[in-house]
Amino acid sequence: MLTPVVGRNVVANFGGSIWAGLMSLAFVPLYVQLMGIEAYGLVGFFLTLQAVLSLLDLGLTTTLTREFARLSILHATMQMRDLLRTLEIIYWSIAVINGLLIVSLSRVIATRWLHPEHLSIDVIEWAVIVMGLIITIQWPLALYTGGLQGLQRQVLLSGVTAAAATIRGAGALVVLWFVSPTITAFLVWQIAVSLGQTLVVAYILRHSLGKGERRARFDCLLLRSIWRFAAGMLAIGVVSTALTQIDKLILSKLLSLEMFGYYTIAATVAASLYRLITPIFTALFPRFSQLASSGDEHELARVYHRSCQLLATMIVPAAVFVALFAHELLRLWTGSAITAEQTHVILSLLILGTPPRAQRTRALVSRGSHTAPHRSRFGRRTGAARRGRWAAGLTCPAASDRGDGDPNRCRHGVA
Questions:
Q1: Which residues lie below 8 Å from residue 207, measured CB to CB, with a gap of 6+?
Q2: How far apart are the C-alpha atoms of 227 and 219, rounded to whole Å?
Q3: What digits encode the pLDDT tens for the residues 85-105?
């Protein structure tokens, strides 16, 4: 069994993540109806832009989560406060640079990258400018969220996330319905919600750390101690972003905004399955970091294989079901036969790619918790398991109970 803290975090993360997913899915058909499919294509471009720029995170968010999880068991409050201030200064600087870059390229994006048929170039240019402002304001939210995850304040964090998702989704609908059914009005509302959420999460994180004996300060020595791990996380982020976003980036250039809007709808539904994956990742990463820091590899292996069972049991049936009934589900959800016809094949293909990505995510959880995974017996075991059958943990309970990740020892498993 998972520890009580991890179990409580998983349940809270599931609740917050599923509710946020429902909020994002429930209003999409209404957004498309009010703004038009081209405008929703711009929303898809904005999400792609956010994901690609996340590479400039430089692995700092995951590093902060790991370091807070490790330092929290040592009660090193002052070191955590200094680390937060150090990474915070870097993060806000990157946020400002990102915003200025997007604003300066807004005209080029509107005229040379995107291909509208009905929206004017001026409308698209203003929309891209607002996107730059949103990214600037929302960018540090990831860092503050990572800090709370490392402190295992995930129950409170899930509540804030769920509340923000409700305000973001329902509020945008109200703005479109009663104020202005335009993409600009939609994005301006996102600025307000992003600013509020960032400030609230930052306040909670600082309150959770408590007061130190002095003011927090920028410390270059802390950067020297974490740069190797951050570089490893950056490399993982580059690969992950290339695998998950390169299709959207290319298609946003090749397709018309209308067709990219349909692709965005399919991608939104496929991404909703990650709502089942992310809570497990979020809850387990701090726990893995603590166990790796304490050297308890037996417990680390046991928790890892239990999480493999849980993950495989949840996402494989869901992915297969959506892939088989994509047309019917889309028709029921959107109420539009045209939308269902345009997107159901794309959705089936995208959703079937989710289980392999989930397998990669759970492996990165365990690997990322080690400073030097190649020196760890657990790191070698999880690597062997990952190269074996995808659902080794699911089909061989005996191996999981032993903490043994070798799928070749499970003779009765299903390939």
A1: none
A2: 13
A3: 999 999 899 999 999 999 999
Greatest distance between any 2 Cα atoms in the chain: 64
Q: Choose among 177, 186, 215: nearest CA to 77.
A: 215
pLDDT band at 299 (very low <50, low <70, confident <90, very high): confident
Given the structure tokens 């400002």, which residue do they identify?
Answer: 96
With 0-12 / 13-18 / 19 or more C-beta atoms within 10 angstroms meaning exposed / middle / buried, residue 391 is buried
Q: What is the pTM of this model?
A: 0.74
First CA to last CA distance, the chain: 25
Residue at token pair 């740069």: 227
What is the SS3 assignment for 25-49? HHCHHHHHHHHCHHHHHHHHHHHHH
CA distance 287 to 61: 16
Residues 6+ positions from 415 with CB-CB distance below 8 Å? 389
Give residue 208's pLDDT band: very low, low, confident or very high (50, 70, 90).
confident
As given in the structure block, the two tokens for residue 178 are: 């009663």
For all residues of the chain together, what is the average pLDDT?
A: 79
Q: What is the number of residues in the chain?
A: 415
pLDDT digits 0-9 by tens, 129-180 = 999 999 999 999 999 998 888 887 878 888 888 899 999 999 999 999 999 9
Q: Is the dihedral of CA 44, 50, 53, 57 positive or negative?
A: negative
Cα gap 267→254, rounded to integer Å: 17
Alpha-carbon separation of residue 119 from 14, 111, 138 (angstroms)? 38, 12, 26
Question: Are 136 and 196 spatial neighbours (Cβ–Cβ below 8 Å)?
Answer: no
